[in-house]
């Protein structure tokens, strides 16, 4: 490293570490009268939120939580989760956001692996814990959550056989509202959660206070200069990405720091989400395509005004078909790109001055890209030998990343960590192109790309084509071995109710063949087999589960 | 410190330091077609800017500059200065922004003290260097700047007796446009400059890369949540604060990172500034009150539309009179607060939803405050014994600060550094109140506050009163010893040309006495002596020089 001069420090001078408590300090500075809302059950302003976070810190301290301990949460998206987002890390403890969609065996694995000491659990998830509690090796105490305290305060909370510290709402209300959060090193672990790979046990990623502060700044930097995130001073924010999933993509930290009105929807039911969205005048959300698809296709969506709603899509690819359907309802939809290991944001779509003037149809090309590379993130393309490839918008390679908020490894898994960081770059496992305009376009997952007759075909490209055929609700494309071509694409489709019986696999093939005939697409893009299915298998975070499709549906797909 | 768990790092993992080069990397990512303009002499887009910064890095490297060396700049506000803002620190070298308004002896002192190795100097300042060059102990090479290269390329540049490396524009144009900036520690010194205190030699403050990155984030954080800085994606930025003064308050780094159109005006002549402002459609500037006063009182100001212009005032107090005059011209004027030692921003006025609805007259109260405490800054009030005082909006104490961008000391001056950081808090030397709404109101400088009859009277309060009397252009109030009252306020005033002969010191006193009679102000606010003067002494950065007023004008003021 270059031999620079370091700043001399006066012995009494103070240089603060970058801690989540510095974000939390902003919660009451600007518009503390704004509200944080949980469904139609609870609402408070930021002054109360500030108090409750300090009360929760006292509750946890009383329960024996110390700096370095892990506190796990199993809850629907709620104000309580947001309180834990701040109280736990500000104590110097580690927040483990448990993925409640994992199997009980996987949840057990992650809880023992993360060494959870105290668990805050919604009564809906008590049965899971009852089933595994004999095998939990580190948990000492449980705090139970119930929504009944808001609706039926007299009702009894689910009976448990746990070492219960008490009920969340009562503990918080009874606690001392004074708590001064101490300083500690900015490289302290603030959060951990688990990603489910294609093989083996879930892998734990972890983020430091500094990394989460820097990620929040990245989101901030998107606003005034780039307007990639269509956020504003008066925005009302409602995440529709589970808070256990990469801290709700980091936006709850930002929204709290900026004193936005925040709305937490609990669990996701389309009509309830739409009702809440309209009632609370929500202007900004983020979700995976599946959720947007569900909302767009809800009968209610067509009867209400969604033109004030901005949605950032991530998690898996936004197809042109879905983007168009959303835009036609007036929803301002764009896409971002990230992963659990990257906290998660690495790029967000930003239409520049010229692109903003394009027609909706022309804008689809940009809106469905992975986005422009985020501030302070470096993204490069790498070939199999570790060489960098040109950013010409055409050359395809594996996307590798660097930046101030990339996980520094998988917890207690040196082998997977070294593989993730091979050559000093974080390997995303995605195949992509990067344009000279810093736009990233994901071609496919490294493991999902289909090699057919010497050509690399992106399964996402074919899914995009299929999404634009009228009547197709969803699609998934996978490759299977082929003696002649090496590999060939195959597709499963979900057909919209109105189109049942009107469309056939053959009619879909003909539609694609017509595009081949007029030179719009290459002939190897037409799947060998097309099968209609009632549902497409998804992972616990709502992504298309191609691993399961390849294993469990193989015979069905390949049958004639 | 609390015993947290630190993030484990995989050996191959990469966690980037916070460097100015990460801000610079943004310059070409979003709207690289936007322009950087120097008067009517030079304009380029960000792609060219990116190239020229790398060329300048090669020029400096060729001139022998290495990481840890100091490069000084003496220039008017220009695109070249902005290029040095990035090229010098990105090399790991230290940018010394010389205050060209200091006396040659002071400039000599700062250049030797900072150990300048290479000096980039505009030909206008060559005479200063010629006068002191025999005493410069560390300078090895000079790069000369001339505006003639844009207007009279054939004209000769001023003759010098220096070790000239060459002329800036030619050196840059001839240099290799490829330069990859290396990584180094984020605590490396990036910049240094000198503050002139009331006694002794100028004192050098210094800022690290990390500190300047964090300060830029602070400015960013003001946008979307708080809208304190009325900036937008499409803004056109023109600083009217010298770039040698606390890096132009940090905004050039922000504007570059956000790809704003930037306009650099060279030297400050009211008509030229207004012309440039209108021609380039400038929407955001910052300056000291003196400059705004000069522009507001320019005959041109009343003939043009200034309603798109947003101005942030700092450096010294924005009086109600000046704020009103600016608002009446349609200028959106607010105030911020900071100092050289704090990089500089510590607070900026932010009108909340209710305050925005107030009348202009009612808004004056807020717009002329020092502002709401900036994101990530801690400000407290301290008494003489080091005790914290309440934030009730009434209790007066010395303002002390902490935050991620406070200078860690004065360069090679341990004694002054320890005093600055007494008790682990940076002492601002300002007396203030802080409200429960996080609003700071500066009462006075610690050394300028007037103690009269047991009351503390703020000289700024009296100046504010005087500024609102029709015909008063500027005022300064100082305290002089008084046998009966301990100390009494005295005022000097500059009267607007149209009011010469119409106002007298007695009529001013009567106006104030009328306010006493109706109970609007306390009687001890009426200055003992009021004297009309042609001009108010100012420091090199445009602040009222009360030290000189107290020493040089004492007899004149106290005379009957």
UniProtKB/TrEMBL annotation, chains A, B:
<feature type="domain" description="AMP-dependent synthetase/ligase">
    <location>
        <begin position="25"/>
        <end position="411"/>
    </location>
</feature>
<dbReference type="InterPro" id="IPR025110">
    <property type="entry name" value="AMP-bd_C"/>
</dbReference>
<dbReference type="Pfam" id="PF00501">
    <property type="entry name" value="AMP-binding"/>
</dbReference>
<keyword id="KW-0276">Fatty acid metabolism</keyword>
<dbReference type="InterPro" id="IPR000873">
    <property type="entry name" value="AMP-dep_synth/lig_dom"/>
</dbReference>
<keyword id="KW-0436">Ligase</keyword>
<dbReference type="Pfam" id="PF13193">
    <property type="entry name" value="AMP-binding_C"/>
</dbReference>
<protein>
    <submittedName>
        <fullName>O-succinylbenzoate--CoA ligase</fullName>
        <ecNumber>6.2.1.26</ecNumber>
    </submittedName>
</protein>
<dbReference type="InterPro" id="IPR045851">
    <property type="entry name" value="AMP-bd_C_sf"/>
</dbReference>
<feature type="domain" description="AMP-binding enzyme C-terminal">
    <location>
        <begin position="462"/>
        <end position="543"/>
    </location>
</feature>
<dbReference type="GO" id="GO:0006631">
    <property type="term" value="P:fatty acid metabolic process"/>
</dbReference>
<comment type="similarity">
    <text>Belongs to the ATP-dependent AMP-binding enzyme family.</text>
</comment>
<keyword id="KW-0443">Lipid metabolism</keyword>
<dbReference type="InterPro" id="IPR042099">
    <property type="entry name" value="ANL_N_sf"/>
</dbReference>
<dbReference type="GO" id="GO:0008756">
    <property type="term" value="F:o-succinylbenzoate-CoA ligase activity"/>
</dbReference>
